[in-house]
Write a structure and sequence with these properties.
single chain, 3 helices, about 10% strand
Length: about 120
């Protein structure tokens, strides 16, 4: 909807890696994603954790302990979702540059190692 995505993948060594991506701004993107849609997305993304926190205080002060576990899970999951999208929006520019530099460096090393073996 707003050109952001994030996920987790596990490599061959069993290490977990988080990937945060955002689509580059272009003329075509402005046609597909309107300002209103973007505002609705971010408003909903921010309002949901706030609503879960209100539910948490409500469950805590009304002594409904059995619902408190459900509400805490809602806060944690919505908070993680908000964190992921904020990280995509803010941190993806640095991350994409680092990934591209790393990839080009590996390709250069492979090519230079291949050239040395053929000589």
């Amino acid at each position: 909807m707003v050109g952001l995505r994030w996920w987790n993948h596990v490599d061959e060594d069993g290490k977990s890696h988080w990937v945060f991506e955002s689509r580059k701004a272009s003329a075509q993107e402005s046609k597909t994603v309107s300002e209103a849609e973007s505002r609705i997305f971010w408003l909903g993304l921010i309002a949901c954790p706030v609503l879960w926190v209100i539910f948490a205080f409500s469950a805590l002060f009304s002594f409904r302990v059995k619902w408190l576990a459900v509400v805490i899970m809602g806060v944690v999951l919505q908070g993680a979702n908000l964190y992921g999208y904020i990280r995509c929006k803010v941190g993806s520019r640095k991350n994409l540059t680092n990934m591209a530099t790393s990839y080009l460096g590996k390709q250069f090393l492979r090519q230079s190692a291949g050239d040395e073996q053929t000589s």
